[in-house]
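Section 3.1: Structural characterization of target chains.
Under the original work plan, the team committed to producing a structural model for every single-chain target entering the pipeline before any wet-lab resources were allocated. The record below documents one such target. The sequence was received from the expression subgroup and is listed exactly as submitted; it comprises 405 residues.
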Amino acid sequence: MHYFIGCGANDIYHNVVDAINKLGESVSPRGIATKEICPAVVQFTDPIRRFLMVPGRNINPFFQVMESIWILGGRGDVAWISRYLKAIERYSDGKKEFNAPYGSRMRYYGYHRSLADISYVNNKFAFQDQFYNCFKFLSNDPYSRHATMVFWDPRFDNPVIETIDRPCNVAFHFLIRNEALSLSIFNRSNDVHWGLFNANVVQFSIILEAMAFALGVKVGLETHFIDSLHYYVDNPITDSILSLRKKFINIYDVISPKKFHDSCPQFDKSTNAFTRYSFLCDEIANFFNNEYNIYEYVNNKKRKPPLIKEDGHILYFRDASYLSCIFWLMINKQVDEALDLFNELEYDDIFITCLEYVYRRFLSEYSKISTIENLVSSRFMDILNKNSIKQSILNYIFSSSMQEK
């Protein structure tokens, strides 16, 4: 058993990769060379420190944020999410929906893209909202051990079904102890670079935090029980991130990420859990409506500019709306307008990781270094003298773009 524990992804990523590199055994599932350790337990004690900000990586945080809400909203369609990362289409088997999307498996368990019987699809008892089921178990009994959801479905994940999209994470279990909600994740196979420390740390910490918000409790531990933790031998990321390890400065040592709870002071311990749950669902729905209006306005000018809600709403969804606007403005080469919107972002970690991505992907042809320096300076004015935070952030933003391609 291999056991790793840290506050968040940035605290243990190098150690996990290094352990696989030194201790891993060579195996070749599907004829593809990998190095793996098995089994492994990876535990985050502060899961909201969710964004990996490590030199030598090439991560799309716009996609990470959008995918987390896409999953929480119970979606599995290819068209919407692929707008933010075209490469994800390769896992769709050429279909309009994925075979095993976590969102629809979580919120509509039993549904599948192959179902053609309309009477079955419209049967309200046919599908299970596992997120709501877990919420109800825990709202009825905070000490319940029943709050479990599963993602593997033998009807659609069997050897007869030809697909490249099968769930790597097969089950969740939520548990409240000491007024904090913890999440245990059971995983059959996890790529350390693109699975665990890229997608899963954001996706699942958001699900955990959303559930904790609905229940009115603190966020506890996030623990991944992984049968095969591995990397692919031909992936150059391993050598890149290990060679740049000495240049790594953990940004979370000098910033504190916001919490869902901090967004909504109108809720306190006396607020009914079902009121909070309903509010959460409204926030998710409002985000998708807002994103649609932003997309239509920026790309097609079919609608009036959308109004992004301010006070009294979960700031993660508010920031996600601004990220959508920034993303599409950059795609349409409206650079100055996009950079101005970074001032609207509430989350410091989202601000930093998305600014790094924008610089790396979009700004190499523009002279915007001074603009980025000013954005960083004005945002962190109160703490610039502590731990050289300004230089640390700028080094991360500018040096990462010169590494992995």
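The mean pLDDT is 91.
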